[in-house]
């Protein structure tokens, strides 16, 4: 297992407009440093406590993306440094991120997470809620956040047709938003989808950010 080689190999499979988020949850600081030495700068983490423990031990130019379910009462711990929160699944959370970002005089990039999996046990914005909120342009008063796109998790199935359908759905939600609410906002350009087992399909369906853990760092041990 050579993390640097894994990253190079994945990058050769990604078109120039698609960026790799190295998902480093459960992995030690040494593993992240190895990825960093190979040029990797965007890292994805799922757990607040783990992220705030690792962040001070690693280079300051890392772009941290939070990709796990985020409780509103924990936003304050990551707001001072997080570059992007990909897993924004409610208005309540969006408001809290805005508040904490402004306290830190920052603007935090956010992606709206939508539930696209047919085995839907996962989190996600209610698209009705999201569209209503965005249509009201309330979000323009949120100076601590910049909504940069959408994020979704596919079903955990080994079935290309299902995966393709789900990613296609996320891309169509992105397009609807891009062509309406965000039509004049060039920052709204990201579609985060695709993991180790399916990032090729995700890229074909329009992904701009793939979140890859296992193929970069090896299997995870949750103990
Ligand atoms: C863990 C995780 C990933 C990476 O999964 P792999 O299968 O290891 O590539 C991607 N996205 C989210 C939201 C995750 O929690």
Question: How is this structure best described in words?
Answer:
The chain is of the alpha/beta class and 223 residues long. It has one domain: Alanine racemase (TIM Barrel, Alpha-Beta Barrel). The protein is 36% helix and 17% strand. It contains 9 helices and 8 strands. The chain has helices at residues 3-12, 29-37, 48-54, 75-78, 91-103, 127-135, 160-178, 199-204, 214-217; strands spanning 19-23, 42-45, 63-66, 84-88, 108-113, 145-151, 190-192, 209-212. An 8-stranded parallel sheet has the order 7-6-5-4-3-2-1-8. The radius of gyration is 17 Å and the shape is globular. The relative contact order is 0.16. Pyridoxal-5'-phosphate (PLP) binds at residues 23, 25, 46, 67-68, 153, 195-197, 211-214.
For the largest beta sheet, what order do the strands appear in spatially?
7-6-5-4-3-2-1-8
Could you list the spans in which at least 5 consecutive residues all have pLDDT below 50? none
Domain count:
1
Mean pLDDT: 94
Helix content bin: 25-40%
Series of H and E elements: HEHEHEHEHEHEHEHEH
Large-scale geometry: globular
Mind describing the biggest β-sheet? 8 strands, parallel
CATH architecture: Alpha-Beta Barrel
In total, the number of strands is 8
